[in-house]
Design goal:
Number of strands: 36
Number of helices: 3
Radius of gyration: 23 Å
Helix content: under 10%
Structural class: mainly beta
Shape: globular
Distance between the termini: 36 Å
Bound molecules: CU-O-CU linkage, copper (II) ion
């Protein structure tokens, strides 16, 4: 537990059912309403083709006027199955080579506990005029009137309930819990796990975090627009007994506007202090969060730090780093720790307008300038321990994601496409798995731009990058930042049934087609793209 008082934003109550009984009743009513909306689509394809194979199948649902929520084609490969040809059915069960897979709707993949929540938060999406810490006026889209929205701080294992209210965001809003492997029905993806919440509507999220760490939340309804406008905030899951000291989240977000220099801000409020007095000897934890679509380069001056967590997973045996350059991919998080020295420390960005936060033993003392040194590499950082799987393991499912850029020149205009395996969403074949499968994905960045690939609902173990096997603390990531030319092998256990987005977190790229899905056999979605739902 931090020595600073836990901030309690508006509408935030702990261990009290003050939310006018907005628990299971409203949840089931909401889902019942959504279920009634559209015909259901059974996703029952299995092992259609070889990796990157050309097989395209028409889903049962796309026979309707609605666009299939997860693309019109699917394929996967499996080393334990040679079945070819898709099978689909309107029947609630589908037969696959591994037997009968009962059909389940994403809307039913929720935490079974309908009792009172331990933590209740109300997040109201609303427009507000914001003045950023660099003095820019923003017509922001906010949660509870601030950007970032209120930090949600909970303890591991607590039942969390978040009531999303859309006051006046005409385009609609949802909340995705980036990096938190919640049940699929709570994943907040418009058109796949729910409908976008329209002005005047609400949606209740309930989940029980089992991961300790730094996460963030953001709209997943046309997120390329919503996140750029400010619909995001941070989410911190503390251990049951949190350690004392200063615990501070620093989220950096870049505001672009035509004709003016882009401004990156750390926290966005004009009133936010940029300097904090910290008693020497205090244990300090800084949680860096990148809500941009491009990587951020952070640095620290005045003290050696340890990177104690990556994407919400603790690093084993982190060693001290002096003057590191911390390249934080879009959507990614690094937790840094240090013991407060008797001189000022600055944590900030190395590029653009270079915002920084200063921690000093007293109000005086020269502020050190943040400069970058050697680039921090998680692949070899910390101490190794046996991981649950390695390059040598037997994988049930193998997939490739080859990322490419295609430019078309026409009448002096350039159109850019960002493809996966040569296809644009919704035509990128899905990766199909059964619960329990061990899955390995070969990520190849064959383009000239960086791609932060984000898989929902799972953390992947990075096995190897550019031919070099991982040697440090097991590197579990939810967002894998691939530089141009990089390739990486990542693996995960399919242990969270659902239909999950897997996309580039440069949200412009995702909106332009660089997205696909991981789908479990037998899981169906009653929701549809179109109908005002835009997942990216
Ligand atoms: Cu941070 Cu699909 O999202
Ligand atoms: Cu990308």
């Amino acid at each position: 537990m931090s020595s600073a008082p836990r901030s309690v934003p508006d509408g935030y109550s702990r261990r009290r059912r003050t939310m006018i009984g907005l628990t299971a009743g409203v949840l089931s009513v909401a889902i019942g309403t959504l279920l009634a909306c559209t015909p259901s689509t059974t996703i029952a394809h299995r092992h259609d083709a070889a990796i990157g194979g050309p097989t395209a199948v028409t889903s049962a649902g796309s026979a309707t006027a609605h666009q299939h929520p997860v693309g019109a084609s699917s394929s996967a490969t499996s080393q334990h199955d040679s079945t070819t040809g898709p099978s689909h059915t309107d029947h609630p069960t589908a037969t696959t080579s591994t037997g009968t897979v009962p059909s389940v709707s994403v809307a039913d993949l929720v935490d079974p506990d309908t009792g009172p929540a331990d933590v209740t938060v109300r997040l109201t999406a609303e427009r507000a005029r914001i003045v950023t810490s660099t003095g820019r006026r923003i017509d922001g889209w906010t949660f509870n009137g601030t950007i970032p929205g209120p930090q949600i701080t909970v303890h591991v294992g607590e039942l969390v309930e978040v009531v999303l209210v859309n006051k006046d965001i005409d385009d609609g809003v949802t909340i995705h819990w980036h990096g938190l492997d919640v049940p699929n029905g709570m994943d907040g993806v418009a058109g796949i796990t729910q409908n976008a919440v329209r002005p005047g509507e609400t949606f209740t999220y309930r989940f029980r975090p089992s991961q300790v760490g730094t996460f963030w939340y953001h709209t997943h309804q046309e997120s390329v627009v919503g996140v750029a406008h400010g619909l995001f905030g941070t989410l911190v899951v503390l251990p049951a007994t949190a350690s004392p000291g200063l615990d501070r989240t620093l989220l950096a977000h870049t505001w672009s506007s035509s004709g003016k220099q882009d401004q990156t801000t750390i926290g966005l409020d004009a009133g936010l202090a940029t300097s904090t007095v910290v008693t020497p000897g205090t244990a300090v934890r800084i949680r860096l969060v990148n809500s941009d679509s491009l990587p951020q380069r952070w640095g620290v001056a005045g003290v050696a730090i340890r990177v104690t967590a990556i994407d919400g997973t603790d690093v084993r045996g982190p060693t001290p780093l002096t003057r590191p350059t911390l390249v934080l991919g879009a959507g990614g998080r690094y937790d840094l720790t240090f013991t407060m020295p008797d001189r000022p420390v600055a944590v900030g960005l190395l590029d653009g307008n270079r915002p920084a936060q200063v921690f000093s033993p007293n109000a005086g003392g020269a502020t050190p300038t943040v400069t970058g040194g050697a680039v921090f590499d998680p692949l070899s950082y910390g101490s190794a321990m046996s991981a649950p799987f390695t390059m040598a393991s037997h994988y049930d499912v193998e997939a490739v994601q080859k990322l490419e850029t295609h430019r078309r020149y026409r009448n002096g205009f350039v159109t850019q496409w960002w493809t996966i395996n040569g296809k644009l969403a919704p035509d990128v074949p899905m990766i199909m798995v059964d619960e329990g499968d061990l899955v390995r994905v070969h990520l190849i960045n064959a383009s000239d731009t960086v791609h932060p690939m984000h898989l929902h609902g799972h953390h992947v173990l990075v096995l190897q990058r550019n031919g070099v096997e991982a040697t440090g603390s097991p590197w579990w990531a939810d967002t894998v930042n691939l530089q141009p030319g990089d390739d990486a092998w990542v693996a995960f256990r399919a242990d969270n049934p659902g239909i999950w987005m897997d996309h580039c977190h440069n949200l412009n790229h995702a909106a332009a087609g660089m997205l696909m899905h991981l789908a479990y056999n037998g899981v169906t979605s009653p929701f549809h793209a179109g109908h005002g739902n835009v997942s990216e």
